[in-house]
Design a protein that fits this description.
Porin, 1 helix, 7% helix, 66% strand
């Protein structure tokens, strides 16, 4: 059910981007991004202490679309598949009992960003910065360990602040290669049906891609 909902949202969004106002200077692309996913926790009960125990390597990949607003300014979006992980240790301060839990999450991500380029700094090379936001729609999740049950469910929707910067090298008339770094800071509590925990997910990643 979640997957069908996400597909409808993505198709409606991409269809809307074909409006006449975006019809000029469209550059499509692909990217692959190795990421490190890490989490921020807040415990709302004095009897339980929770902390992030490990930062995990994951990846994001998919299609990108850049719509020209001027020669050096683009509205940048796309449809990306993003794997993330939640890992934490929880200790009952009254009994001393503790447990470690891990959850794997899969998202469809739609970035809503601006890509701001410098003029050429070398032969067909530019630097860019990329501020904005990302909308994330959960399509699947699971507990990795048999007894992972502290988080009963995860919210369908997440959103994050996005900031990236990188280098773009023109390879041909319309093709360019880009490499950059980005950071996404989660804005939404993704732990559903759990009043004891506030959980937000962050990403740090390396962008590798081509624009056509």
């Amino acid at each position: 059910m979640r997957m069908k909902t996400v597909i409808c949202i993505v198709l409606a969004f991409l269809f809307g981007l074909h409006a006449p106002s975006f019809s000029q200077s469209v550059r499509l692309g692909v990217k692959f991004s190795p990421t490190i996913t890490f989490n921020r926790f807040i415990s709302h009960t004095d009897s339980i202490a929770i902390e992030n125990t490990r930062d995990d390597k994951r990846f994001t990949f998919g299609l990108t679309a850049d719509f020209g607003l001027s020669d050096n300014y683009f509205f940048s979006t796309g449809a990306l598949y993003s794997l993330r992980k939640v890992t934490f240790a929880a200790e009952n301060l009254n009994t001393g009992e503790s447990d470690a839990e891990q959850y794997s999450l899969e998202y469809i991500e739609i970035p809503l960003t601006l890509k701001l380029y410098t003029n050429n700094i070398g032969v067909d090379s530019k630097i860019y910065v990329q501020p904005g936001f990302a909308l994330d729609f959960l399509v699947n999740w699971k507990g990795i360990n048999k007894n992972d049950n502290r988080v009963k469910d995860f919210n369908f929707f997440d959103s994050s602040f996005y900031f990236g910067a990188g280098w773009d090298k023109q390879l041909g008339v319309t093709t360019s290669f880009f490499v950059g770094l980005f950071y996404q800071r989660g804005l939404v509590d993704i732990a559903n049906k759990n009043d004891d925990i506030t959980l937000k997910n962050d990403l740090l990643g390396l962008d590798l891609g081509l624009r056509f």
